[in-house]
Amino acid sequence: MLGSLGWEELLxxxxxxxxxxxxxxVAGLGGALGRGIREFRQEASRxxxxxxxxxxxxxxxxxxxxxxxxx
Length: 71
Known about the structure:
By secondary structure, this protein is an all-alpha fold. The protein has a domain at about 5-45. About 70% of the residues lie in helices and about 0% in strands. It has helices at about 5-20, 25-45, 50-60. The chain is elongated, with a radius of gyration of 25 Å. The chain starts with 6 loop residues before the first helix and ends in a 12-residue tail after the last helix.
């Protein structure tokens, strides 16, 4: 549904929003939306998730400093 909107429709929607809320407020919302999307992509692209860290820790052999661990 959203993919079928062309640039003309998006322009009309932007003009209506500018008339309703004011151009500066719409620009601020657009900037906030852009920052939010950028932060989301940065967090999503990080490869170290908590599950990955647990897996890495379990793969490492336990460091022995002369002490024996009992389970």
